[in-house]
């Protein structure tokens, strides 16, 4: 877990690299799947959530499409103060994690599909003829052979 310290001047210090970082750099850490923890430099209070929300706000300000639409935010606000929020947090987290896993699988399958060597047209025709013979036990008709009723 990468420890970041937020100072009263609102600057964030990366204890791993010993330098101050911007929100864009924190966003890249998240994209790179690094776990982070942001704490107040003097009190040690966990500020991770507020910094992550700042990263999202910053991305939306840059023009990225909003994942958290106004409607979603309104519904989330309505959950607070309700006992169901204790169940909804883990449920939403699980649903998002499953969605991300599915997306990763699809990306991997697409990458594999487009990196496989494709047969030439002649090779593809030969493969189709072989499969036809395998499944039917017959030689497929060709364009220059007479139809069955003319033999």
Protein model, in words:
β1 and β2 form a beta hairpin. The protein has a domain of 66 residues. It is α+β, with helices and mostly antiparallel strands and 151 residues long. The model has no long low-confidence stretch (mean pLDDT 88). The chain starts with a strand and ends in a 15-residue tail after the last helix. Strands 3-2-1-4 form a four-stranded mixed β-sheet. The protein contains five helices and four strands, in the order βββαβαααα.
How would you concisely characterize the structure shown here?
With 151 residues, the protein is of the alpha+beta class. The protein is built from five helices and four strands, in the order βββαβαααα. The N and C termini lie far apart (78 Å).
What features would you highlight for this structure?
151 residues; alpha+beta; 5 helices; elongated; four-stranded mixed β-sheet; 11% strand
Segments where pLDDT lies below 50 for 5+ residues?
A: none
Helix content: 40-55%
Distance between the termini: 78 Å
Q: What does the largest sheet look like?
A: 4 strands, mixed
Principal-axis shape: elongated
Query: How many helical stretches?
Result: 5
Structural class by SSE content = alpha+beta
Assembly category: single chain
Radius of gyration over C-alpha positions, nearest whole angstrom? 28 Å
Sequence of secondary-structure elements: EEEHEHHHH
Mean pLDDT: 88
């Amino acid at each position: 877990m990468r420890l970041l310290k937020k100072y009263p001047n609102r600057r964030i210090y990366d204890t791993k690299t010993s330098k101050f970082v911007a929100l864009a750099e924190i966003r890249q850490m998240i994209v790179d799947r690094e776990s982070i923890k942001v704490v107040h430099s003097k009190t040690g209070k966990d500020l991770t959530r507020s910094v992550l929300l700042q990263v999202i706000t910053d991305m939306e300000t840059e023009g990225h499409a909003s994942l958290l639409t106004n409607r979603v935010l309104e519904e989330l606000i309505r959950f607070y103060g309700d006992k169901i929020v204790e169940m909804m947090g883990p449920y939403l987290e699980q649903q998002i994690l499953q969605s991300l896993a599915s997306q990763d699988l699809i990306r991997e399958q697409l990458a594999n599909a487009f990196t496989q060597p494709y047969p030439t047209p002649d090779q593809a025709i030969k493969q189709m003829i072989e499969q036809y013979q395998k499944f039917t036990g017959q030689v497929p008709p060709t364009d220059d052979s007479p139809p069955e009723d003319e033999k």
